[in-house]
Amino acid sequence: MEIPYTVKNRPDTGLYNAKLGVWLFLASEVMLFGGLFSAYVLLRVGAQPGEWPHGWLNVTLGTINTMLLALSAITTLLAWAALKVNQFGKFKFFHACTMILALTFLGIKSYEYYDKFHHYEIQLNDGKFADGHFESAVYVNQATKAEVEEHSFHGLAFTQIAGGATNNFKLASVTIHGHVVEHRAELMDMRSDEAKKAVHHEMTVAASDIKRIENYGPRHTTFTAIYFTMSGLHALHILGGTLVIFYLWGPGSRMWKTDPERFTNRVEVSGLFWHFVDLVWVFLFPVMYLT
Predict the structure, then answer these.
(1) CA atoms of 4 and 134, how far apart (whole Å)
(2) Which residues of 248-268 are buried (b: 16+ CB within 10 A; e: fewer)?
(3) pLDDT tens for residues 43-57?
(4) Which of 26, 16, 41, 2 has the alpha carbon at shortest distance from 230?
(5) Domains along the chain?
(6) Which pTM value belongs to this model?
(7) How far apart are CA 234 and CA 166, in angstroms?
(8) Which of 3, 87, 130, 153 could form a disulfide with 82 if both were Cys (CB 3.0 to 4.6 A apart)?
(9) Which residues, at least 6 apart from 34, have a Cβ–Cβ distance to it below 8 Å?
(10) Whether the Cβ atoms of residue 109 and residue 136 lie closer than 8 Å to each other
(11) H or E stretch including 133?
C-alpha cells in the first residue's frame, strides 16, 4: 500500500507529511525550551543581589561553539541544496562536514563539563573559601594508617575491597590549583578586577580545615543546575540530530537510488530540526555566557 503525501504536498496544509510532522514536533520543542528559558529568567530575577554568578563560563569556548553550529547550519543547507540539483557527491561531503562540526561542538561541551566537575569550592572552618581545580587528594587507611594519593576525589571517605579485605579510607588533605578568598561573594563575579588579579597556585588543604567541599556540578548553585539542565538537553538534541544525519549520510542514503525525491525530503526535514537546534543555541549562548 502506498502512503499518500510522502512527496506530494497535502491539499489542506500545502506540506508533505514529514514536513508537517516535523513542524508539529518543533512546536512542542518550542514549548519545552520556552519553559526552561522562562524558568531561567524567573530564577535570575528572583536571586538576591550578589548571589547570581557571572563569568563562570568560558566565553571563548562558547564563541567557538557558536561559530561551529553556525557553519553546520550552512553545510546542512548545502547538503539539501546539492540533492535538489542531483549532486549526490556534494551532499555526502556537506553532510560529513555537518557531522564533524557537530561532534567538535560536543567535544568542546564535554570539556566544559569536565572542567566544572573538577572545579571545587572549599569552605574552610575559619570562614574563608578556597577555590580551584582539583589536582589530588590524600586518603588514610583507617586500619593500617597508610596514606594513598588519589587523582580523583572520592569524598570525605570511601571503602575499598581488595584481596578479600575491606579497607576504609578517610580524607587527609586535598590539593587544588586555585586561591583563597575572604568571602564567597568574591567568587560570584569572575569578571571583576579582583578576580582577574587573583593569583592561582597549588595549595594543600587539610581535611581538618574543611567545613564543606563541593564541585561546580548541577547541585552547586541554582545557576549550575539550570545551566546543566538547559545545555545538557541541548547537547542531547545535537547528539540525536547527528545520529539522524549519520543515518541519512550512510545506510539511509540508499533511498537516493530508488526514490530520490522522497530522500531529498527526508534530508530537508532533518535540516529543519538542525536549524531549530542552532537557533536554541543562539539564545543559550548570550543568556548563559555573556550575562
Answers:
(1) 59
(2) bbeebbeebeeeeeebbbbbb
(3) 999 988 888 999 999
(4) 41
(5) 17-117+221-289 (1.20.120.80), 121-213 (no CATH)
(6) 0.92
(7) 42
(8) 87
(9) none
(10) no
(11) strand 129-141
